Amino acid sequence: MSQSTPLAIVGLSAIFPQADDLRAYWRNLKAGTDAITAIPASHWRGTDFFNADPKAPDMTYAQRGGFISPVNFNPLEFGIAPKDIEATDTTQLLGMVAAKQALVDAGYDQKPFDRQRTSVLLGVTGALELVIPLGARLGHPIWRRALKEAGVANDVAEDVVQRIADGYVPWQENSFPGLLGNVAAGRIASRLDLGGTNCVVDAACASSFAALHLAALELEAGRSDMVITGGIDTFNDIFMFMCFSKTPALSPSGNSRPFDRDGDGTILGEGIGMIVLKRLADAERDGDKIYCVIKGIGSSSDGRGGAIYEPRSEGQVQAMER
Question: What is the CATH number of the domain that holds 89?
Answer without folding.
Answer: 3.40.47.10
